[in-house]
From TrEMBL:
Tree of life domain: Bacteria
Name of the protein in question: DUF523 domain-containing protein
Matching InterPro entries: 2-thiour_desulf
Pfam families: 2-thiour_desulf
Length: 137
């Protein structure tokens, strides 16, 4: 079983209320091979919501609010679902402060990328889950 970012499965859960559908991910979900999750929604954040980026060890939105606790709670809940479903692999939305893997935005809201992982991706990596992004498909 594969855990996937829900926005890649066509769920309108991104910060702006949109999805980022990926046909390969949608097919995996449709055939019962993948479980879609949105760590940000699982952490209690609404959709739509202000954009957020990682600044140091905190997640800050464009309004200056520290929403790290919601991101952490959502990452933990998504990991719990991952374990319950027996997922050993993940396909995550690139550059996201939750799901980004390898490269994330630098916290200036300027579109600049830096090396790093989102909170959910980091938690998955620390727990031995193989991670890909939609860019790897």
């Amino acid at each position: 079983m594969i855990i996937v970012s829900a926005c890649l499965a066509g769920v309108r859960c991104r910060y702006n209320g949109d999805a980022f559908p990926n046909e390969k991910v949608i097919e995996l979900v449709a055939t019962g091979k993948a479980l879609p999750v949105c760590p940000e929604q699982l952490g209690g954040l609404p959709t739509p919501r202000p954009p957020a980026e990682i600044v140091g060890e905190r997640v800050i939105n464009t309004q200056g609010a520290d929403i790290t606790p919601q991101f952490q709670a959502g990452a933990r809940e998504a990991l719990r679902l991952c374990r319950l479903a027996g997922c050993t692999k993940a396909i995550l939305k690139s550059r996201s402060p939750s799901c980004g893997y390898g490269r994330i935005y630098d916290g200036t809201f300027s579109g600049t990328l830096i090396p790093g992982d989102g909170l959910f991706a980091r938690l998955l990596r620390e727990n031995g889950v193989e991670i890909l992004t939609e860019e790897d498909l």
